[in-house]
Amino acid sequence: MTELTYVLIGLHGVMIVNLLLNMAAFIMRRRARSSNELTSVSVLVPARDEEHNLPRLIDSFSRQDHPDAEMVIYDDQSTDSTWDIIQNAGDERVRGLRGGDLPDGWVGKTNGCYQLSKHAKGSVFLFIDADTEFQHPAALRHMCERFAARPEGTMLTGMTLLKGGGKTIVTMVGALITSCIPWWLGKHVPAAAMSGVNGQCWMITSNDYRRLEPHQKVRGEVLEDIRIGRYLHRQGLTPLLDDVTDDLTVHMYATFPEAWRGFRKNTADILGRTVFTSTLALAGYTLVFIVAPILAPVLIGSLFILKILSDRITRQPLSISLMAPVSFLLIIFLGLDSMFNRSRGRIEWKGRIIAPIR
Q1: Mean pLDDT of 132-148
Q2: Which of helix, strand or coil describes residue 201?
Q3: 273, 356 in Cβ contact below 8 A?
Q4: Residues 6+ apart with CB under 8 A from 211
Q5: Are 48 and 90 within one domain?
Q6: Which CATH number fits the domain that encloses residue 86?
Q7: What is the per-residue pLDDT for 32?
């Protein structure tokens, strides 16, 4: 074997160890609970054409036992019955905001979340997507208790339970962020590039949000959640990844094609802002996860180990884990498709051009 092969084997070993340390950190964080009186929380939900998801989310929120919670939903010019569903929620704690024209330079989701922040009354903001669902009546309270127990100078983002189609690619998000980011270091994660938040679920105090205004800072970004996490890290507010698979479910995509289209809109941005950086990142990914197992077949086993362990965190079936080589390979084609789509000059989602090529 060449020196490069030994380096790649060592890198895979580091990722496996890092993933195991992350798993241990998630277990400890799940046990962290504050016994102090809970502060008020605003659950903030941007929504555009979400008539199939909102009834489930609103119903699950209405069953929450948190003593001081509200849900505010921003209807972003929906063309379906989203607004009617909000208006007929049947829970006085649920209220809606009806959005107008999208301001210049803003992406729909960042604008929706920013508008929600202006009308939220809670001391804590929980941003979630419309396709989420609280799993049990104590879910919101448990999440807030863990948030209250977090170290000073941090905020929380959640690793959710994933349901839906396209899991061969959807679950790769969890595999890569738990393998490659040292979340177990907590507030001592050394670089902003190692940070991010999961846009499906993140929590921040209202004071910190209004002081830093993260959505305003990334208003034109397709990849707003990653950019927000890195921005907060640079400002001294470190994101901590919390395992909320016991509390929050995300019903992402119904089918594989839908999942592909959803990830296509931002995979190129994850890889890099320019053609050069995206190509370089995708080449590095290909070297580590495709070429390396060819050079050292023992690393095929590493792909299975990484996927099986990460899928245990997100509670995915073994049948998905056993598709590991296919999942890792699909990311290359997804990356190329996303880069090509971006090179056309614009990115479209839910009938709206959401970002010009930079």
Answers
A1: 96
A2: strand
A3: no
A4: none
A5: yes
A6: 3.90.550.10
A7: 82
